[in-house]
Amino acid sequence: MSRLKLLMLTAIAMLLVVAGLALNWDSGADGSLERVRKAGLLRIGYAVEAPYAFLTPQGVVTGQSPELAKRLAARLGVANIEWRLVEFGELISELRQGRIDVIAAGMFITRERAELVNFSDPIFWARPGLLVARGNPYRLHSFTDILAQEQVRVAVLSGAVEGEALRQAGLDEERLVVVPDAQTGRVAVQTGLADALALTAPTINWMVLRQPPLKTEVARPFSQPGRDFDKCQGYGAFVFRKEDAELLAAWNAEQSAFFATEEYRRLMNDFGFGPEEMPGNATLKEILSR
Fold first, then answer.
1. What whole-number distance in Å separates Cα of residue 111 and Cα of residue 233?
2. pLDDT confidence of residue 37
3. Beta strands of 152-233 (E only): which ranges?
4. d(CA 64, CA 51)
5. From CA 158, how far away is CA 181, in angstroms rounded?
């Protein structure tokens, strides 16, 4: 073979390689789906907040989000899950640093979070609620009632939307009792360290249903928040790294198919999510544009 022909063949081969790379780049291929399938393992981060995620007495991770994640992982062909318990406020950091692959913790979709991570399609819709001291001595039936009484202190989860919304509405930082998980927040109300615990209604209701309160109760009625507190009622989803687009796309496809099954409705009902907590036809794009 002449030197000229050899050079021409080499050039053609290089062009084909470049074209292949460009094709993969344009298609958004990032290898994330193949990575977890080849490893046969998903590392899923969660924070304890029932009914979204919690541990059974035997130490098994369960809850609405983990149980749904188990089924979707199996549908993706991933046989094993490594569960990692993380404080709620640290979950996104752990995900972005590559220590976990997915967050399954009932995390709300917000524009601020969407700048850092990618959300799956929504998996539930939840409203806010309050756990208060027995008898509700401060007559707390809305977040506005908290703001109006200077002596009232409220417990919130670290990194959760309730704390940020109350801060933006003007609540002084010293009136916030930041706790790592829901159970610690409940203890704060029981002991008088806080006068209320602000969380989503499914969490508050689950706490009272599964662990009958001794010194606390659900604030009823509880009015829906106004415009200042829109982020306290919203849609939750699984969370992925920005660079794991292939994994997210495959996850969403399996999630959509699973949502059409009776098994999905039974799973949601088992954790207290009725028809009013279903995400319905809401889309991620629509939610982020509000």
1. 14
2. 96
3. 154-157, 176-179, 196-200, 216-218
4. 6
5. 8
How many other C-beta atoms can be found within 10 angstroms of the C-beta atom of residue 152?
18
Examine the pLDDT at 225 and tell me if it is beyond 90.
no
Indicate if the pLDDT at residue 228 is higher than 80: no
Answer for the pair 180, 88: CB distance below 8 angstroms, yes or no: yes
Q: Which helix (H) or strand (E) holds 244?
A: none
Q: How far apart are CA 111 and CA 264, in angstroms?
A: 27
pTM, entire model:
0.77
State the DSSP code for 88: G
Number of H helices, E strands in the chain: 12, 13
Q: Is the pLDDT of residue 6 over 70?
A: no
Q: Which residues contact 197 (CB under 8 A, 6 or more apart)?
A: 130, 131, 132, 154, 155, 156, 182, 185, 186, 188, 189, 204
Mean pLDDT value across the chain: 88
> Mean pLDDT over residues 252-265, rounded?
96
Distance CA 101, CA 71 (A): 16
55 phi and psi, to 5 degrees? -110, 140
* Gap between the Cα atoms of 33 and 170, Å rounded: 44
Q: In angstroms, rounded to a whole number, what is the distance separating the alpha carbons of residues 250 and 241? A: 14
Tokens 């979950």, residue?
91
162 versus 8: the higher-pLDDT residue is 162
Quick one: pLDDT band at residue 16, thresholds 50, 70, 90?
very low
Residues in Cβ contact with 98 at an 8 Å cutoff, skipping those fewer than 6 apart: 241
CA distance 267 to 252: 18
Question: For residue 173, what are the contacts with CB-CB under 8 A and spacing of at least 6?
Answer: 167
CA dihedral 77, 98, 124, 197 (to 10 degrees): 140
Residue type (1 letter), 201: A
pLDDT for res 209: 77
